[in-house]
Write a structure and sequence with these properties.
The complex is a heterodimer of chains A (305) and B (271). Chain A is built from 14 helices and two strands, in the order αββααααααααααααα. Chain A is mostly helical. In chain A, β1 and β2 form a beta hairpin. The longest helix of chain A has 37 residues. The two termini of chain B are 35 Å apart. Chain B is globular. The chains are: A mainly alpha (305), B mainly alpha (271). Chains A and B meet through α1, α4, α5, α6 and α8 of A and α1, α3, α4, α5 and α6 of B.
């Protein structure tokens, strides 16, 4: 019996340890290194930063190593307005897009939850399917549409909304269109999940007591759907702040979003410490929303623990 | 929720779906355009698909992407399923909060951060970047999606089946293999497919991880798209859309058949 119990114990340990060690090595440890490099200095070397830790130099090497740390990269971040504007722009794009997504996504999720049960699984697949096709392809499709001589201008000119073709690409409008298009399923699905589970007797009770439909929506449906609103908003807001592909392909070049700035510092300027400092600052900015999101996930997937 | 949709409900769903599908439809139609000018319609043609067949660089990238996706999706499915089992069936263990934190964070973590931090890790431990570093990065990125899918299935089904087997003396491993695993198999399959698609799709993390000779399909498409619209890219995209659509239909049919078979078996048991 005890042999079996210890075998069982061993099995449980493997089940826990395998994903644990993997994530600790490839998700957690990298953040420690990012933090370390954000405190390093740029150098014309391979890798392009100082100090590089060398295990062979032993204890004195470690002391030297620690002495060379500097907050230069962070000082640069706070002194150059370029970075500040970049952060503000990212927050603005993420905030406005999330608001648009809520306004657009809510009626869709609400409608999905109200059609007959037989149709609902099909509609869920229909909403998820575009998410399964490549992100890059969907953005690329919009480049086709938004071009100067593309279909959107054709339609608008045909309807006499505009007389000359408008430049849609390389503008903030194009970024918003791309972001809303790409993230719509992430907003609709959590909203649908709470709306679909809602107890219809509550609405019937409200109607029986003479509550008009708009009022029962405002007083019953909306408050009860708030967990879905929070989940959808966080699921969209956090990744949009760090978005790179959409602003890079659809947006202009005046003010970059923070993901683009990080990309440029890393790939074009080869300034790894500054890129790492941007990542650390971005992470700090998103820490609170990420922790909120984790609480929501734990509650919904682990039964309220 | 009260059934019976108003016309407002139906219109908002219809408009939503139109918004989601119109751009993809336009892209597919343009891929059959005979004209080299993307926006001028020159009649139906398969010219760009033929051209694609001779584009060795693109085909090579597609092959690399498929191998990366298959390898990383498979390892992510194993690790992600283990994590889901640990989080739902192991009760409270030390470090549980940290594990669930590490599982959910990558779902929303901006890809530039994940990509940069993994790259700096590989530089720090002196590992050359290339095929295998992309596989490792994609495994890390996608296993969390597998965990969430499998976890919601594990939370959702009746635990009394497992408990009954254990009460009758079935050892835990056997219980897991004969009771739990078949029940969560559809979720595991869905998780694998999602991981595969996400890996096939990823540009940002792969760009940080790539090295000589490991140009994945999205990296190749991205560098071409930056140079401007090419009808050939429309053709590549259409093929990828077709593969995903077929895969989704096939998997939903498989799941449906599995459910029907189980229902029939349950019916038989009752009779």
């Amino acid at each position: 019996m005890s042999a079996q119990a210890s075998k069982q114990d061993w099995g449980a340990r493997v089940i826990i340890l395998a994903p644990y060690l993997w994530l600790a090595a490839f998700f957690l440890a990298p953040f420690v290194i990012v933090l370390k490099i954000s405190l390093s200095q740029t150098a014309l070397a391979q890798p392009p930063y100082l100090p590089v830790f060398d295990l062979t130099t032993g204890w004195s090497g470690l002391k030297d190593f620690a002495a060379q740390f500097s907050a230069d990269s962070f000082r640069l971040l706070s002194s150059d307005a370029l970075y500040l504007f970049s952060y503000l722009k990212s927050l603005q794009v993420a905030g406005i897009s999330t608001a648009i997504l809520l306004v657009v996504g809510y009626p869709i999720a609400y409608g999905m939850a109200r059609v007959s049960r037989a149709w609902q699984p099909l509609l869920v697949i229909a909403v998820v399917l575009p998410f399964w096709t490549s992100f890059l392809i969907r953005i690329y499709a919009w480049i086709n549409i938004l071009q100067r001589d593309g279909p959107l201008n054709d339609v608008l000119m045909h309807l006499h909304v505009i007389d000359t073709p408008a430049a849609w690409l390389s503008s903030d409008t194009a970024i918003y269109i791309g972001v809303v298009y790409s993230y719509l399923p992430f907003m609709v699905l959590p909203l649908y999940a709470v709306l679909e589970k809602m107890d219809e007797t509550l609405l019937e009770a409200a109607a029986d007591l003479g509550c008009p439909r708009w009022k029962s929506f405002w007083l019953v449906t909306l408050p009860l759907s708030l967990p879905g609103v929070a989940a959808g908003a966080l699921l969209c807001f956090i990744p949009i702040v760090g978005e790179f592909v959409i602003p890079d392909l659809l947006g202009g070049s005046e003010t970059l979003m923070i993901g683009q700035t990080l990309w440029t510092e890393f790939f074009s300027n080869r300034d790894w410490p500054v890129a790492a400092a941007i990542a650390v600052a971005l992470l700090g900015l998103l820490l609170v929303p990420i922790l909120f999101y984790e609480r929501l996930q734990q509650r919904s997937l682990e039964g309220g623990r | 929720m009260k059934r019976g949709a108003s016309s407002f409900n139906i219109i908002s769903v219809a408009l939503g779906l139109a918004f989601l599908y119109l751009p993809i439809t336009i892209l597919v139609i343009y891929s059959f355009n005979a004209s080299r000018l993307v926006t001028v319609w020159g009649g139906w043609s398969l010219a760009w698909y033929r051209e694609l067949l001779h584009d060795d660089a693109m085909l090579q990238s597609a092959w690399i992407s498929l191998r990366v996706a298959a390898l990383s999706a498979s390892s992510a499915t194993v690790l992600g399923t283990l994590a889901a089992v640990a989080l739902t069936r192991m009760g409270r263990f030390r470090g549980r909060l940290l594990l669930s934190g590490m599982v959910y964070a990558p779902l929303v973590m901006p890809e530039v951060i994940t990509g940069l931090s993994l790259l700096l890790l590989f530089v720090a431990i002196n590992v050359d970047r290339g095929f295998w570093t992309i596989v490792i990065a994609h495994t890390t990125l996608t296993m969390c999606f597998v965990t969430v899918i499998v976890q919601s299935r594990l939370v959702g089904f009746d635990r009394s089946l497992e408990e009954a087997a254990m009460d009758l003396g079935c050892p835990p491993l056997k219980t897991f293999l004969t009771i739990t695993l078949p029940l969560i198999a559809p979720a595991i399959a869905a998780g694998w497919m999602l991981a595969f698609v996400l890996s096939l799709d990823d540009l940002v993390v792969a760009s940080f991880m790539t090295g000589p000779g490991a140009t994945t399909l999205p990296i190749r498409i991205y560098s071409e798209v930056r140079l401007g619209i090419k009808p050939e890219i429309n053709a590549v995209c259409t093929i990828m859309i077709a593969i995903v659509a077929l895969g989704t239909v096939a998997s939903s049919l498989i799941v449906k058949r599995g459910v029907m078979r189980r229902e029939r078996a349950a019916l038989g048991a009752q009779v």
